[in-house]
Amino acid sequence: MTHLSKIPTFTIRQASLGDFDAMGPLWHLLDGYHQGQDPKRFPGTPKDAPRSKAYIAELIHCADRALLVAEQCPTIEGERGSLIGLSLVTLKTCPPGPVFPVRVMFEIDNLVVDETCRRRGVARALLAASEEWAKENGASEMLLNVYAFNEGAKRFYESQGFQPLRIQMVHAL
Predict the structure, then answer these.
(1) CA 170: distance to chain centroid?
(2) Which residue of 120, 126, 128, 135 is 20 to 30 Å from 84, comparing CA positions?
């Protein structure tokens, strides 16, 4: 007899301001990872709220951005599930130049999944929902930035079809 482990199900939806407090641990996880890898570039943030309520409200209400959350389905009907991931997507229109035509693309600015829920398809679902939202809003390309130290994220995005476009370099002065 094979025993199948129960994997909690989740849904992806647009964030609401009511999610503000539940998003805090996810922002802390994201920021903490970057701060641990590069503390000079990512100095510590206040312990109370890594993003202000006004900032989150702006993200939620801005037509060219989507703040998506992955919510674990509650075990008790009528209750809200816990947030286990989030993705911030920004639409960008690049004006024409001497070489490039007008381009509408979207950038995934942040994508994070709770450590206890990784390898369950949450990041893939957030990425797919981000892509769907962007297509509905006229995007033709997907763009994101990954810091060189973030090998896991690079492998994940490459497995989802992303390819390096250019290399940005820095030199401290």
Answers:
(1) 24
(2) 135
Residues 50-64: tens digit of each pLDDT = 789 999 999 999 999
Residues 6+ apart with CB under 8 A from 125: 10, 12, 70
Taking the C-alpha atoms of residue 105 and residue 119, their distance in angstroms, rounded to an integer, is: 28
Confidence band of 172 (pLDDT split at 50, 70, 90): confident
One-letter amino acid of 159: S
Task: Provide the domain count of the chain.
Answer: 1
Q: Is residue 5 part of a domain?
A: no
In a domain, 70, yes or no: yes
Mean predicted confidence (pLDDT) in 36-49: 78
Per-residue pLDDT of 113-138, as tens digits, reads 999 999 999 999 999 999 999 999 98
Can you tell me the distance from the alpha carbon of 64 to that of 58, in angstroms, rounded to the nearest whole number? 11
pTM value is 0.86
For residue 164, is it within any domain?
no
